[in-house]
Design brief:
- The protein has about 500 residues and is an all-alpha fold.
- The chain has two domains: about 5-150, no CATH class; about 165-495, Neurolysin, domain 3, CATH 1.10.1370.30.
- The protein contains 20 helices and three strands.
- It has a three-stranded mixed β-sheet, with helices on both faces.
- A hairpin with a 4-residue loop joins β2 and β3 (about 245-250).
- α2 (about 40-60) packs antiparallel against α5 (about 100-120) and α5 runs antiparallel to α6 (about 125-145).
Length: about 500
């Protein structure tokens, strides 16, 4: 059956227009976190609310439903079918949500960012609690509009990760609990005897840390003609294949933390910049949220935390930091396990996932109404004690440490899924490049990062949203998502490092 000749073109034009509006909203959000004065928050919330309202109204227009219906049984190319599939999913979800609720959520969450910053700075959860409760109630209301017969948390999760089931992710979490908890305990016991290297006890300035981060971005191949490096309270990346901006933070006593955060965000930017230019505006030119964290974790962990990387980069780091560490010493600094660390984004590569499991547990209970907002700090602290053996001294390093709850819930799992997938992609890439006569460790040691980026471009970035996330994972790696590669990688890396 053929659709009316202009149905697909009209749909595509509408989708492109919506993408452009959404990307403009992304720049507005970037400005809010990077350059906007604090006093601009009330106006910014209304601006973002107006943009989201326009996007919602244009997406849920009856004409979009008519075009989609016309295209249901139409003879389409694979690319056209992908555009229709992704647009239909968004359309069907958004048409169930009232426009005034969309506006209210956007305005509330935008304003919440400043409320969170102030509360964190003052170590005062009580001042943020009413806002957090309001955000929870609004998102639960939205989930009930989408599907009133189902658990609102599951509805929220599927809105973020529609192609990876919650059951699949929970299975991965179970495998990680079983494999990581005993490994972390072994490393904790071996920590003192291992006597790994540390950085000198001093402070570094912003110029040294940002200069080091900028040079790392240059070496990795970041295109500063399509991006920039700035600082923000919480590192993030925002943009498109034409403009992917990286932010990092300055950690005066921990310059490697700043460096690794910069390289982490480079991974996100590499995905955005690797999307096909010719498909900008449609789902074929957009990244998959479920895949994004795998790219940042690949470059942070499977490149920048490796011994070959430090064989290549140690002299550069010494030049910027005024240190005199060997490659082995930098490698040890970058890979130590800190089970007593309270902050997720400062966590080591293994205990990081216990932070994610903690957060997912707390937010699930909060969203489902099992705990009241006033109980969040206590439950948080209890879980941190249970999973990591430490308790925060205040809310700023406890439940207020992350900005993410200002925008919603059910997204934390993606960080651990990203690490698991990064290891799976790394294994597939190494096998492919080895078959072509390339040794990945030698490429990294020589500063030849191009073949690694090209493999990711060809196997992940270039596809945009052509394939559902689960299918894209199988196409890139040859099998469904599994924690096996990450657990094997963790054991093979950390047991020798700690002499166990």
């Amino acid at each position: 059956m053929s659709a009316p000749p202009d149905a697909y073109e009209q749909l595509r034009e509408r989708v492109e227009h919506l993408t452009y509006l959404g990307d403009a909203g992304g720049i507005v959000a970037w400005d809010q976190q990077v350059t906007m004065p604090d006093g601009g928050a009330p106006a910014r919330a209304k601006q973002q609310s107006a943009l989201s309202s326009v996007v919602h109204d244009r997406l849920t227009d009856d004409a979009v439903g008519e075009w989609l219906d016309d295209l249901d049984e139409a003879d389409l190319t694979d690319e056209q079918r992908a555009v229709v599939r992704e647009t239909r999913r968004d359309y069907e979800e958004e048409t169930r949500v009232p426009g005034d609720l969309v506006e209210e959520i956007t305005e509330t969450t935008s304003a919440a960012q400043q409320t969170w910053r102030d509360a964190k700075a003052d170590d005062d959860f009580e001042s943020f609690a009413p806002t957090l409760a309001e955000i929870r109630d609004l998102h639960v209301e939205r989930a009930e509009h989408v599907d009133s017969d189902r658990d609102p948390y599951r509805v929220m999760f599927e809105g973020i990760d529609p192609d990876l089931s919650l059951a699949t992710v929970e299975d991965v979490f179970d495998d990680l609990r079983e494999g990581l908890v005993p490994l972390i305990e072994d490393l904790r016991e071996a920590h003192d005897d291992a006597a790994l290297a540390t950085l000198p006890d001093e402070e570094w300035g912003e110029d040294a840390e940002l200069g080091l981060g900028r040079e790392a971005l240059d070496e990795l191949g970041y295109d500063f003609d399509r991006g920039r490096l700035d600082t923000s309270p919480h590192p993030f990346t925002s943009g498109t294949q034409f403009d992917a901006r990286v932010t990092t933070w300055v950690k005066p006593e921990e310059p490697l933390n700043s460096l690794l955060a910069t390289i982490h965000e480079y991974g996100h930017a590499s995905y955005q910049l690797g999307l096909p230019d010719e498909h900008y505006g449609t789902p074929l030119g957009q990244a998959r949220y479920e895949i994004h964290e795998s790219q940042s974790r690949f470059w942070e962990n499977h490149v920048a935390r490796t011994r070959p990387f430090w064989d290549y980069f140690a002299s550069t780091a010494n030049d910027h930091l005024g240190t005199d560490l060997s490659a082995r010493e930098f490698y040890e600094v970058a890979n130590q396990i800190y089970p007593d660390n309270l902050i997720r984004v400062e966590a080591d590569e293994l205990t990081y996932h216990m932070h994610i499991i903690l957060r997912s547990d707390v937010e699930k209970r909060f969203v489902r109404g099992d705990i009241d907002v006033e109980e969040v700090p206590r439950v948080w602290n209890d879980r941190m004690d249970e999973y990591l053996g430490v308790r925060p001294d205040g809310d700023g390093e406890g439940c207020l440490q992350d900005i993410h709850w200002t925008s919603g819930f059910a997204g934390f799992q993606s960080y651990t899924v990203g690490s698991v997938l990064a290891a799976q992609l790394d294994a597939a890439m190494r096998e492919d490049l080895e078959s072509e006569g390339e040794d990945v460790d030698e490429l990294i040691r020589d500063g030849e990062f191009g073949p690694l980026l090209q493999w990711m471009n060809e196997n992940v970035h270039a596809h945009g949203q052509r394939y559902p996330a689960d299918e894209l994972i199988e196409r890139a790696t040859g099998e469904p998502l599994t924690a096996d590669y990450f657990l094997e990688y963790a054991r093979e890396k950390f047991r020798p490092l700690y002499g166990i």
